[in-house]
Amino acid sequence: MKKQDNQNNIHSLMRLLPYAKPYTAQFLGVFLLVVIFNATSVLQPYLVKVAIDSDISILHPNLQGVFIIGAIYVGIVILGVFSNIFQMLLLQYTGQRVIRKIRIDVFSHIEQQGMDFFDNHAIGRLVTNISSDTETVSQFFTQFFLSMIRDGLSIIMIVIAMFELDVRIAWECMMVIPIIFAISLLFRNWLRDAYQATRTRLSNIVAFLAENLAGMRIIQIFHQEAQQSDRFESLNSQHRRANVNEYGISVIFNRVLELLGNLAVAAVVFVGGGAVLHHVILFGTLYAFISYIQKFFQPINSITQQWNTLQSSMVAADRIGKVLIVESKIQDPAMPVSLTEARGKIEFREVDFSYHQGEPILKKVSLVIEPGQFVGFVGATGAGKSTIMSLLTRQYDPNAGKILLDDVDISQLSLTDLHHYVGMVQQDLQLFTGTIADNIRMFRPEIDEETIVSAAKAVGIHHLIERMPDGYQTWLYAKGANISMGERQLLSFARMVALNPKVLILDEATASLDSQTEEMVQNGLSRLAESRTTLVIAHRLSTVRHADVIFVMDHGQVVEQGTHDQLLQQRGIYAELYENAGIEVLA
Amino acid sequence: MLNDPRLILQSFIWRKKWAYLLSILSIIISEMVTVQFPNLIGKFTDLLSRGQLTTAGVLHYTWLLALVGVTYVILYGFGQFRNGQIGRQFEYELRKRLFIHWETLHTGYFRKRSVGDLLNHAMNDVRAVREAMSGGLNILTNSIFLLITTLFMTFTTISVSLTLVSIIPLIFVPFFIVWWGPRIRLASRHVQESLSTMADLSEESLASIRLIKTTGNERVEVGRFTKTVDTILMRQMDMFKRSALFQSFIPLMGSLSFAIALIYGGYLTVNHQIQLGMFVAFTLYLTMIITPLQQIGFVINNFQRASASMARLRILLMEQPEIVDLPNAKTLRDAKGEVSIHLDAFSYPDSLEPVLKQIHIRLQAGQTLGIVGRTGAGKTTLVNLLPRIFDPPDGSVFLDGEDVKTIKLTDLRSAIAYVPQDGFLFSAKVAENIGFGKKNPLFEEIETTSKDAHIYDDIIGFSRQFDTEIGERGIALSGGQKQRTAMARAFIKDAAILILDDSLSAVDMVTEKKIIERIRELRVGKTTIIVAHRLSAVRHADHIVVLDKGQIHEQGTHATLLNNQGIYADIWRLQSEGEEWT
């Protein structure tokens, strides 16, 4: 089972490999530079050995030889440094280009999905896919790949150098390799677990603090300072214990590796010293062995770290792959019909719809809305009002029946065209981080200043914007703390005027506004409704009172339709709703 | 004064002085041991090259080297771990101190500063101090003593001139780190910023996905996204350029210094001024010296960061709590709930503009007061003065005839139950949230109050009912559910005074009506203050105050106010028309 998982993960990492393909030349370049760098660093102890054995020797001193070797030494050091710098830059540049492309593809793929996708995927999760999963995958290219070739080559070259020097001692040195591997892998797991424990407890502290700072007023009013600081105390000491534990393991790990290094040198001294005594090797060779055995530790340790990198990038690649594999359910028609000019007539013909099988939301809904009408939809929560609007904007496709815009089935229109003709203002008013102007034009470059200003004037927010410190250039934040509820509402109206759809859908906000703002919003709404077909999911009596037609919905069906007065006379559901509103209207 | 972090640190170190002495001593001894390593190999080389060594001699040196290795690792590991442990103890104590301190500060303080900002101090500044205390201290002791002992060894056993000439390139290393290190940190911060900009943008975009889809704006969004990704690429390359230079400089200097040792040391050996063993030992000493030199640079950066953090923590911890008991504060048992307010003007500490002017209200024990008015009229401010969430001027707000500022805070706040507008709840079980203000609440009480607040049916519908976790790690409640839960939390306190601060705004009309009826039954003979947007919530109050721009515009009962034909009557008309009704 576990193995199966791993294979799947490797598979999903492989699926991302085509992103690296255009950069084959760059990756080869990196490889070449790594070879040069490694060669220079393996050569250094060898040069010292030559100097000791042939030039610094007491028997036949050769000063000129010392200088020549010194010069070569400086030369290869500089060569090594430069090849290393170029290698790092080239690899990072290439890796970052690859990730850039993956990021853009993941993001635009998500943006193309139909709404059912967003019903099944939490936004936080998707943001993680886009930002941190891609970052983790990039480590595959920049860390894993690099470590494999750099550290792998380094080990191989040291081994080769050792065997060149003396085969017997080299074999004896090889014994240390499995020991280092074993220790590193063992500790790696402990360290990872300890690290994760610390991280979890740290984030508990952060979450606790964030919440308690935000709710300090409540703690103080309910006089729970002591209780809360006890809770903090427990989280705080849990974190301390985990942190000390993690630190302890890392200290032991580093010291054990160091000890192993020292013992290895002692062992080389023992073996090599005997060999020198028996004139099997020269002293310089022993010196080189001491240097090489010390150089062994770093690359082996670094390679064992990559196991974790590989694992986490595989998991991340798998998560990205699962997103990329989903095909959008809402597709453009192969041969879209184009409307020359929309008038704004809407017709539903026996439309059935359910989000989940067996739980029908709409049942054979049929209705006709004439161009230019102002239409209200009322009914209890769950009656199907919002669903009608979602289908009309093709966020979902109906299970049966047809939806027509100007007598053309909307599934025959391109999505771009449909959304050009049908616009929607939702209940939760969305703002984007950017200027007011950007928020009205939705960042579209083709909408000019003039259109923005006239849209703002049309819904009556122009004078409010003018009064702000930077006017239309005032910076807004997505959370919109710096702008009031009413202003947000008007801004979203202005957005629709600027986009100028032929059909407008409005899901009225339920939040209570104060009376002055209420009036402003109602005025904005009536200006917005001019010269287009308007469908409103209404929560306010004042909104539907003057509607051309009111559709009353109940359990997924249109049960009544007519004007306010007609419906009151029918004494049906509408009249009942009206009376139960709990408002005694003053005469 | 007790809260000055420098004094806290001093007294902490004093408390731990023996522990510190022990760990530092063991590090110092470990350094003195480890410098014997090159020395031994040097002597071994000399004996070997002179042919004066036997197999037994080789074994002898092997054992000595192993002994040095083991002793060093044990002593250094011990000192290092102890220092790290003590540092983490300080981190823990400092965080605890911060939290307890924050609990004494008033709401105005938290309004001025963002939670994210305070969190940043509690997490990162405290950590920076700890890093300097544990890692920094280890490295500092380690580097300084290793440097001293190594130099001492090379000076005395090898050659002063060879040492001085060879370490020239290495001298630059700590300076380079101090100079270049912060630049890399800056670049890396820029990368982090651009990464979070990208995450923010994608979150924002996905949160608005319906709008984006219905306006066909996907391509524009991808364009915005691409821009942020390109910024990341650019900044990341900038950082890599800086760090590539950094990572290459130190080994370069090390190798250059080694090259000098090779040439000059070779020259000295050939001229018989030093022996081959000394030459070998010296090259080994050089590799030992590179690490401490480079670490000294890091430690300097580390200490600079820590001292800036200390300064920031000092500002936080030295903040004086403003709302405290007076020296001879009075106790108040069994409050009756008579409230009177005689306020000429109130303005927030950081502004001159008064938020409330000329407020005079008298409320008999057991009466209900309704406060209405537009957003920003000063309703919340007014009710916040009573429990001293903000401090009123002296002699302006009275409970049972006593100025609230002269009553013990504990007693004052025990007499008041409060329901905030936002329905703030903690990430805990539903039952824990409802029982928050009461010591060991009975489960029956929790159940009863949740019925009173009309949240019982919702809770029973949750998978784990009263044990359901809410907030961060649990389920998300709707605005109305939050408000009703917060209402239950206040009901269970059964205090002399109940304040509802516009706490029914997200509750639908029908439920609001039922809750208000229940409150009227429960609060018979007890004082209740209701702030509301919707007049339906206050119409039954004994007394209604209409606030406008911080002043009492009109007051009276529902009937008299309607007759007045003022703002109240206007709002009543508008709300009957525009009220949400589905």
- Provide the structure class of chain B: alpha/beta
Report the mean per-residue pLDDT of chain A as an integer.
82
Count of distinct structural domains of chain A: 3
Rg calculated over all Cα atoms of chain B = 36 Å
Number of helices of chain A: 20
Low-pLDDT runs of chain B: none
Determine Rg of chain A (CA atoms, Å).
Answer: 36 Å
Could you list the spans of chain A in which at least 5 consecutive residues all have pLDDT below 50? 582-587
Shape of chain B: elongated
Oligomerization status of the protein chains: heterodimer
Q: How much strand content do the residues of chain A show? A: 5-15%
Within the largest sheet of chain B, what's the order of strands? 6-7-8-3-9-10
Q: Biggest sheet of chain B: strands, sense, closure? A: 6 strands, mixed
- CATH class category label of the largest domain in chain A: Alpha Beta
CATH superfamily of the largest domain in chain B: P-loop containing nucleotide triphosphate hydrolases
In terms of structural class, how would the helical and strand content of chain A be classed? alpha/beta
Helix content of chain B: 55-70%
**Residues in helix, % of chain A:** 55-70%
Describe the sheet with the most strands of chain A. Answer: 6 strands, mixed
How are the elements arranged and paired?
The complex is a heterodimer of chains A (587) and B (582).
Chain A: H1 2-15, H2 24-55, H3 63-112, H4 115-120, H5 123-165, H6 167-174, H7 176-214, H8 216-221, H9 225-277, H10 283-324, E1 346-354, E2 360-369, E3 374-379, H11 385-392, E4 400-405, E5 408-409, H12 415-421, E6 422-425, E7 434-435, H13 436-441, H14 449-459, H15 462-467, E8 475-476, H16 485-499, E9 503-507, H17 515-529, E10 533-537, H18 541-544, E11 549-554, E12 557-562, H19 564-570, H20 573-580
Parallel strand pairs in A: 3-10, 3-11, 6-9, 9-10
Antiparallel strand pairs in A: 1-2, 1-4, 4-5, 7-8, 11-12
Chain B: H1 5-15, H2 17-34, H3 36-49, H4 55-102, H5 107-112, H6 115-158, H7 160-166, H8 168-207, H9 209-214, H10 218-270, H11 276-318, E1 339-346, E2 356-363, E3 368-373, H12 379-385, E4 397-399, E5 402-403, H13 409-414, E6 416-419, H14 430-434, H15 443-452, H16 456-461, H17 479-491, E7 497-501, H18 509-522, E8 527-532, E9 543-548, E10 551-556, H19 558-564, H20 567-578
Parallel strand pairs in B: 3-8, 3-9, 6-7, 7-8
Antiparallel strand pairs in B: 1-2, 1-4, 4-5, 9-10
Helix pairs in contact in B: 2-4, 2-6, 3-4, 3-11, 4-6, 6-7, 6-11, 7-10, 8-10, 8-11, 10-11, 15-17
